Amino acid sequence: MERKQSDLLFARASKVLVGGVNSPVRAFKGVGGTPIFFERADGPYLIDVDGNRYIDFVASWGPMLRGYSYPEVVDAIQEQAARTTSFGAPTFAEIKLAELICSYVPTIEKVRMVNSGTEATMSAIRLARGITGRDKIVKFEGGFHGHGDALLVKAGSGVLTLGLPDSPGVPQDLAQHTLTVPYNDIDAAKAVFDAYGDAIATVIVEPIAGNMGCVPPIAGFLETLRELTTNHGALLILDEVMTGFRVAQGGAQALYDIQPDLTTLGKVIGGGMPVGAFGGRAEFMNQLAPEGPIYQSGTLSGNPLAMEAGYALLQSLNSHTYAALARKTNHLVSGINDAARSHHIDLHINHVCGMFSMFFTSQSTVTCFADVMAADAERYRMFFHAMLDEGVYFAPSPFESAFVSTSHEENHQLDATIAAVDRVFARLA
Ligand SMILES: *Cc1c(COP(=O)(O)O)cnc(C)c1O
Questions:
Q1: Average pLDDT in the 301-318 region?
Q2: Ligand 1 atom closest to Cα of residue 274
Q3: Which residues pair with residue 136 across a beta bridge?
Q4: pLDDT at 158 > cutoff 80
Q5: Which of 241, 242, 352 gets mutated to test ligand 1 (max ligand atoms within 8 A of its CB)?
Q6: Of the residues 113, 116, 118, which should be mutated to test ligand 1's pocket, given the most ligand atoms within 8 Å of the CB?
Q7: What is the rounded CA–CA span in Å between residue 153 and residue 182?
Q8: Residue 150 pLDDT more than 90?
Q9: Quick one: which of 104, 122, 314, 401 has the most CB atoms within 10 Å?
Q10: Omega within 30 of 0 (cis) for the link into 217
Q11: Burial of residue 86, with CB atoms counted within 10 A of its CB: 0-12 exposed, 13-18 middle, 19 or more buried
């Protein structure tokens, strides 16, 4: 497959953009080679600047739940753009998206809109610290919550891909307040509360880890975090930036029946526009300015283009959406597993509704960061490039989740993907 135009653009980009990109994982350092520049996308397909077409499983890292260029979202953006791209003043669009979010996720009584998932988690942590008057936070190894200083400690995907354990530029004084525990390790979570319980403001956790690949919670893990935080007067933040509206209409918290104090959202709620949000119990949210003393603001927060795009996508969702996503994901995953078995490839796939990850490992479970690191990343790199040549675009890193959209058809793009995987596994075997 020729990608001359992408190569030329990457050379040009590298002169004026750091690493040729605006977000590190896009640079293909996790898999080697030159990133692909895209021009258009439609439903399950991406079309690059050389005119090559790919079946896509990246979904802009999650938002494209209904595939690219979903007509309702495109229309909503076009109509709003003609009215103006921003006011910086209250609009009806903010209310209707907030009302929808509150109705889908019952633990969210009030919302604050922001511009990214990073902003949502940073602000939710400030709120939790302000409410409790405590400094320490607990996060999990391989858990990624955006690039806020306090959260760039043992974070997942991007940081893993580049092999940076932590980041220079994060003050030790700040990092020392971040306590890190292995994901799905119930005893370690109890131990950290035994040692620091009175100083912990909040536990922030991805209810399904998605940034070290997809790693679902084991039974009792989230329940234990809910119990520990309640017993010690700390807040539980479920970071649903990836899982919100991805795995269920009510988010992962509905799937696992966990009631957090605060929830962070992003990705799907913007329909592909830059959006984040956090919300939760009104008594907590009311501590934010202008109701309360804890400050948070944003020039473009609640931007009408983003609100209209998010509303158009969210209001299209219902229980059928998730039944279809689960069915499609199961179809793809079982096809890939069959291909692995027939070619004797050691593979383990974790999946929940519209998200999944392939780990090249002989282990029968992958439940934590150490399990993820034990998988064969080099084999993923070979798989990734071979699939690209088959016209299938997976994430350019072994530490990401793959996403299925409602636009992927089982007897069309998904069967084509399974057939391509089968050919690639035959060569890898
Ligand atoms: C993507 C992600 C973030 C960061 O969101 P941005 O919009 O990239 O800042 C935070 N938390 C989780 C769980 C994510 O998947």
A1: 98
A2: 7
A3: 200
A4: no
A5: 241
A6: 118
A7: 12
A8: no
A9: 401
A10: no
A11: middle
Task: Please give the distance, rounded to the nearest whole angstrom, from the Cα atom of residue 266 to the centre of ligand 1.
Answer: 7
How remote is the CA of residue 8 from the centroid of ligand 1, in Å?
30
User: How does pLDDT run across 224-251, given as a tens digit for each residue?
Assistant: 999 999 999 999 999 999 999 999 999 9
**Residue found under tokens 């283009």:** 305
| Sole residue written with tokens 């020039």 | 299
Residue 151, amino acid: L
Nearest residue to 254 (alpha-carbon basis) of 244, 264, 262: 244
> With a 6 A CB cut-off, is 243 part of the ligand 1 pocket?
no
Tell me, using a 6 A CB cutoff, whether residue 253 lines ligand 1.
no
| CA nearest ligand 1 atom 10, residue | 145
**What is the CA(191)–ligand 1 centre distance, in A?**
28
Residue 236's alpha-carbon distances to 63, 122, 230, 263, 291, in angstroms, are 24, 14, 8, 8, 22
Dihedral sign, Cα of residue 272, residue 273, residue 276, residue 280: negative
Q: How far is the CA of 308 from the centre of ligand 1 (A)?
A: 21
Q: Is 206 in the pocket of ligand 1 (CB under 6 A)?
A: yes
Please give the number of the atom of ligand 1 that sits closest to the Cα of 118.
9
In this structure, what DSSP letter does residue 64 have? -
What are the tokens at 133?
A: 């008057």
Residue tagged 């070619």 (tokens) = 343
Is residue 159 predicted with pLDDT exceeding 90?
no
Q: Which residues contact 9 (CB under 8 A, 6 or more apart)?
A: 37, 49
